[in-house]
Specification:
Helix content is 32%, strand content 29%. The chain is α/β, with parallel strands linked by helices. The protein has a six-stranded mixed beta sheet, with helices on both faces. The model has no long low-confidence stretch (mean pLDDT 86).
């Protein structure tokens, strides 16, 4: 799949001398969902602001569908929709007019059918005549997405799109994002909700202190950096682990029935076969086994910690 955004050696140092980005190089493929993860102040919003033409980089280049964001700003910006973190809407304007105005800013001819489709997809059609100040916080965020989609962009940036949105509304918005991806829209999102990245993204990028630590397929990332936990359920409770098992990194639950074993999926040998043999040698009878994979949150925290 071709890259719709190409970033080369992008850096940003603010006038105060604070470095926000350092040598970021990245290709974003057309039609993918890329989640950018990082702690507060990592550089996520600065990166998005540069890609959207809102902040001037100190060095490096960015092209959107071949258009340089500096030399060919208008052509590049026309391909981009941005949903910012902050909810900034004219409070007394009606939803329909708000979205129509955004389309007009890009010089697009009026297209009522497209605007209706956008509003319906975001469950805003029934609110089209409501004033923005009459909407809930979640609905206001939907209006921001509608504004960003009004001019039919090829690339959509979502900067913390579901911050402050309840769980049900968040999942409804995920459905909207999936529909956009199915239509070929490239989506780049920043989020503090690790479940959001785990649920939505094709690839995950991790940023910390202005450096892009890695960008990798989500499944491969969790396989490479994730850990698994195996829980062994015994047929009879025990008061303590036998001495022969003490060196295996096991822990016994308070009920005396469950023993947990953490292991690295990257290791050539997990030690599970040897461990189960040790159970048998110790005279412990096993009723059941279960395993669970590390969450993306655990993987993310481990990555950031390893690079500090």
């Amino acid at each position: 799949m071709a890259a719709i955004i190409q970033i080369r050696d992008l850096s940003k140092v603010y006038a105060s001398g604070t470095p926000a980005l350092s040598g970021v190089t990245l290709d974003i493929e057309e039609g993918e969902i890329l989640a950018l993860l990082g702690p507060n102040g990592a550089g996520k919003t600065t990166l998005i602001s540069i890609l959207c033409g809102l902040v001037t980089p100190s060095s490096g280049t960015v092209t959107v569908a071949g258009h340089d964001i500096g030399r060919d700003y208008r052509a590049a910006r026309e391909l981009i929709g941005l949903v910012p973190q902050e909810i900034a809407l004219e409070p007394f304007e009606r939803v329909m007019n708000t979205v129509l105005f955004s389309r007009g800013l890009f010089g697009k001819p009026r297209d009522d059918a497209w605007i209706e489709r956008v509003l319906r997809s975001l469950a805003l059609w029934d609110k089209r005549d409501a004033r923005n100040n009459e909407l809930s916080g979640g609905m206001k965020r939907r209006v921001l997405i509608a504004k960003a989609l009004a001019h039919q962009p090829k690339v959509l940036f979502l900067d913390e799109p579901t911050a402050g949105v309840d769980v049900n509304l968040r999942r409804e918005m995920w459905d909207v994002v999936r529909e956009l991806k199915a239509e070929g829209v490239t989506i780049i999102l920043t989020t503090h909700y690790l479940e959001e990245a785990e649920e939505m993204a094709d690839r995950v990028g991790v940023i910390d202190k202005g450096r892009l630590l890695l960008v990798q397929d989500k499944t491969a990332l969790m396989h490479e950096f994730g850990r698994k936990r195996m829980t062994v359920e015994l047929t009879e409770p025990i008061s303590a682990l036998p001495a022969s098992l003490a060196a295996d990194g096991l822990s016994l639950a308070a009920d005396g029935l469950h023993v947990t074993y953490d292991y690295d999926t990257r290791a050539e040998r997990t030690g599970i076969a040897r461990l189960l043999a040790s159970f048998a040698d110790a005279g412990l009878s096993v009723r059941d086994l279960s395993t669970e994979q590390s969450s993306l949150e655990e993987v993310f925290l481990r990555l950031v910690e390893e690079n500090r």
